[in-house]
Design brief:
260 residues; 2 domains; 3-stranded antiparallel sheet; 10 helices
């Protein structure tokens, strides 16, 4: 593999996940870890990536937030698998909160077509609400507020005031990044505040994140890793992070590999 091909390989990886490690690149390229570090150092000097201890992350930074249109077509198998594992956690008669996001859209579709009924679903996501619009036997509450066009979610004072008086059996909450050191984060301050409120207003909260969300940080803290009750992720999640979360007392559910 030529040097330019190696650069393209690294950049393509970082478009679908938060970080890469020196060890995995060494194995992929058949190079020594010293050579990989030199390659990463060169890419950092060109502004293509940011180096970290043991690897690299995207150069986009803590404020980077992909739009709904950008996220929807990627990692479909992982998202559907996480949604199936999340649906298994729901019982008949539950009051459920579904966060905005592309993984929770899959969960909404499973709720719409599944056998579990007598459900009440609240959401800040317009796309999530639309998935449930024709399910006449499921009560749906849309949490209103300021529309974030990029993510199709409602935030702000109006949304917060609605949620102050609502309490759910289970909540399924998405985000942008998770690390053991800095916790569960998202780029938008208002989103972070709202997601934390939702966590606190659920008897059981489930963080839903695919493997690409581990190993980097966004701007705004939602909760530290030790404050998380349950995490649902996919079979590709980094084993070290999963083990670290379990040591902190987080119940981690890894979904089975999905074949599309």
């Amino acid at each position: 593999m030529l040097a330019e091909d190696r650069r393209s390989y690294i950049l393509n990886l970082l478009e679908t996940r938060s970080s890469v490690t020196v060890a995995e690149l060494s194995a992929a390229f058949g190079l020594s870890e010293v050579s990989v570090r030199k390659l990463l150092s060169s890419m950092e000097q060109e502004g293509l990536i940011k180096r970290t201890w043991g690897g690299a992350v995207s150069a986009y930074g803590s404020l980077r937030e992909f739009s709904h249109k950008e996220k929807e077509p990627v990692r479909m198998a992982e998202k559907l698998s996480i949604a199936r594992a999340a649906y298994a956690c729901i019982a008949d008669g539950d009051a459920v909160f579904l966060d905005c996001g592309t993984t929770t859209v899959h969960l909404a579709r499973l709720i719409r077509s599944g056998k579990k009924r007598n459900l009440m679903v609240a959401t800040t996501g317009l796309n999530v609400a639309m998935e449930l619009a024709d399910a006449d036997d499921i009560s749906v509450i849309v949490i209103g507020g300021e529309l974030r066009h990029n993510t199709l979610s409602c935030t702000g004072t109006f949304a917060e005031n609605m949620l102050k008086t609502m309490f759910f059996d289970k909540g399924f909450i998405g985000g942008n990044h998770l690390t053991l050191e800095h916790g569960f984060t998202t780029p938008n301050v208002q989103e972070a505040k709202l997601k934390r409120m939702i966590m606190d207003n659920c008897k059981e909260h489930y963080i839903v994140l695919d493997y690409s969300k581990f190993g980097d940080d966004s701007l705004s803290l939602i909760a530290s890793a030790s404050e998380l009750d349950n995490l649902i992720t996919d079979w590709r999640a980094p084993a070290e992070t999963v083990a670290g979360l379990q040591e902190l007392g987080v119940h981690v559910i890894q979904s089975e590999e999905e074949k599309l």
